[in-house]
Design brief:
Order of helices and strands: HHHHHHHH
Oligomer: single chain
Distance between the termini: 61 Å
Low-confidence stretches: none
Structural class: mainly alpha
Number of domains: 2
Amino acid sequence: MAKKELSPQSERLKEFKEKTGYTLSEFARQCKIASPRTITKIITDGYAPTAKLLDKIIKRFPMLSKDYIVLGVGDMMLDKELNVHFQGTREENFKLIYDALDEEEAEDNKTYTSMDGEMLWDRVDSLEKRLSNIERLLSKLVK
């Protein structure tokens, strides 16, 4: 019996599902897909995912690049750091994450100068201005 050829989209979804470590049933449950058979048809049988199904997957995994799944363009993950984390084994991925957390903790414990504080306040002011502009634009859209 000949092996079924997977669509490019199903191949990329299969790759992502394997990186998550979930079974087909758990992946379907995580994405709030009623029947695990739906995911099986895509990942095992090779059917291309519908836009509605892909939206459910992206809603659960917002870091997954829709362009990557649909078109094969760009990286699998939107965040460059996550692309690195998703390349190794599960144990390697956990080690990378724990190492990153240790680095963040070390960064939190270092002493800062008054110059660092001034730069942070300048950044806060800039972000507050951007937020104010966004709120103003949103209020216009709502009217």
